[in-house]
Design brief:
The chain is of the alpha+beta class and 254 residues long. The protein has a single domain, classed as 4-Layer Sandwich (Deoxyribonuclease I, Chain A), CATH 3.60.10.10. It is 24% helix and 26% strand. Strands 3-4-2-1-14-13 form a six-stranded mixed sheet. A six-stranded mixed sheet has the order 5-6-7-8-12-9. The model has no long low-confidence stretch (mean pLDDT 98).
Length: 254
């Protein structure tokens, strides 16, 4: 089973940038999207020409903001939206699709914002999201993917020193949040498969960052340790254009 996660930075914009061809080329069974920036009906409309997938969308109350979606060739056994926590459930950030062997959760983690003004909220989110994952895991193993809005280690961003504790996505509080997920038994599949490889999944639109590969690895596939032996491959598809993020991939054996 091939799973792909991609922050598309607007699904309607992505559809104008060869999204359909990229989807075909990636030959994915399930595609998880973040930052759709559209209401549910707009997501359906934007993807109307995509055939062969069941579509599930979770949009924010605020129009043109946030949002997640799942496209799956196999119809999930069930689909849940949000975490059931009022303060977290206004921005369409979580979808959980249940399959035979696992839950697949896609997440668009809140950014801590300019001046780290949302860092306190982000820390509460991280704690509540981990509790949500562990609750799901009592039922069956969990695969979680998406834009986690944090680079985990120095190797995961091009300029760690000037960004540490100054930039959203590389503060110790955010690093601790991902540390806690890993400590709770979730495996970072790309880093597990490629311990020393430098590869990024997001680049600023400023100053030719992508052309110069001044990037960050903030998009992940994490999974329950009980699924670790089923990982055939994990990669970052940084040749795929169309967003400021590139897709990340996970291949699982049956």
């Amino acid at each position: 089973m091939r799973l792909v996660s991609w922050n598309v930075n607007g699904i309607r914009a992505a559809m104008k940038k060869d999204f359909a061809q990229a989807l075909q080329d990636m030959a994915t069974d399930v595609l998880c999207l973040q930052e759709t920036k559209a209401q549910d009906e707009q997501v359906v409309e934007a993807l109307a020409t995509i055939e062969g997938y069941h579509l599930y969308s979770n949009s924010a109350e605020k129009k043109g903001y946030s949002g997640t979606a799942v496209l799956s060739k196999v119809e999930p056994l069930s689909v849940q939206y949000d975490m059931g926590i009022a303060e977290h459930d206004l921005e369409g950030r979580v979808i959980a699709a249940e399959f035979e062997a696992f839950y697949l959760v896609t997440v668009y983690t809140p950014n801590s914002g300019n001046g780290l003004k949302r860092l306190d909220y982000r820390q509460q989110w991280d704690a509540d999201f981990l509790a949500y994952l562990k609750q799901l895991e009592t039922l069956k193993p969990v695969v979680v993917c998406g834009d986690l809005n944090v680079a985990h280690k120095d190797i995961d961003l091009a300029r760690p020193k000037p960004n540490y504790n100054k930039s959203a996505g590389y503060t110790q509080a955010e690093i601790d949040g991902l540390d806690n997920i890993v400590a709770a038994g979730f495996v970072d599949t790309f880093r597990d498969q490629h311990p020393e490889e430098v590869k990024y999944s997001w680049w600023s639109y400023r100053a030719g960052a992508r052309a110069n590969n001044v990037g960050w690895r903030i998009d992940y596939f994490l999974l329950s340790k009980s699924l670790q032996a089923k990982v055939e491959g994990a990669d970052i598809l940084n040749e795929v254009m169309g967003s400021d993020h590139c897709p990340v991939l996970l291949d699982l054996t049956e």
